[in-house]
Design a protein that fits this description.
Blueprint: H1 2-14, H2 36-55, H3 67-93, H4 102-130, H5 136-162, H6 167-173
Helix pairs in contact: 2-3, 2-6, 3-4, 4-5
């Protein structure tokens, strides 16, 4: 019964068709090809993001019972975070000036808080390294710096969510290898 209804609809609408002269031709397929400079810039930009994501696993295990070993463990962990942020800030700063100046604002929105966070982690590491032993005051100072660093980084994430790159850059992301991961 369904088959009959479909055939009836097709036959009924066939009479409504109007003949068209000419041959069918496919319309142009448009793909936006970004300049190689913008694609390279996006590849580097996404490379920094990939580096930060991959490096985000810096963890501090349970502190050793020995106070000297605990101090070294905390200092080493803070040093790894500082190193990661140093590389990220440096690589992001290398992206300016961007091929299109509108992209510079997006980089600045990221670099400024990452640099501030790095400075807080540097301060925390300096406090640990400069202390003869890990006292309550030293630990409190270190935790304050780390809390401020994380807060600044959270603010950066919020700012990034309202910042966008020019269309040419988002188009280039589809062509940049580091952006396709």
């Amino acid at each position: 019964m369904k088959r009959f209804a479909v055939i009836a609809v097709v036959l009924a609408t066939a009479g409504c068709a109007t003949p068209v002269a000419g041959r069918p031709v496919a319309g142009p397929v448009t793909t936006k090809t970004s300049s190689p400079e913008v694609v390279r810039w996006m590849n580097n930009f996404c490379g920094v993001a990939n580096y930060l994501v991959a490096s985000g696993g810096v963890q501090v295990g349970e502190a050793p019972a020995d106070p000297a070993a605990a101090k070294k463990s905390i200092s080493d962990a803070l040093g790894r975070v500082v190193d990661i942020l140093d590389v990220a800030v440096h690589d992001l700063e290398e992206l300016t000036p961007a091929p299109v100046t509108a992209a510079d604002a997006a980089v600045e929105v990221i670099v400024e808080p990452l640099a501030k966070a790095r400075d807080k982690f540097v301060s925390a590491k300096s406090t640990v390294d400069g202390a003869a032993e890990l006292t309550t005051d030293v630990f409190s100072s270190v935790m304050q710096n780390m809390t401020e660093a994380v807060s600044v980084m959270n603010d950066a994430v919020e700012k990034m969510s309202v910042t966008s790159l020019p269309d040419e850059f988002t188009d280039a992301a589809t062509q940049a290898e580091n952006c396709r991961q």
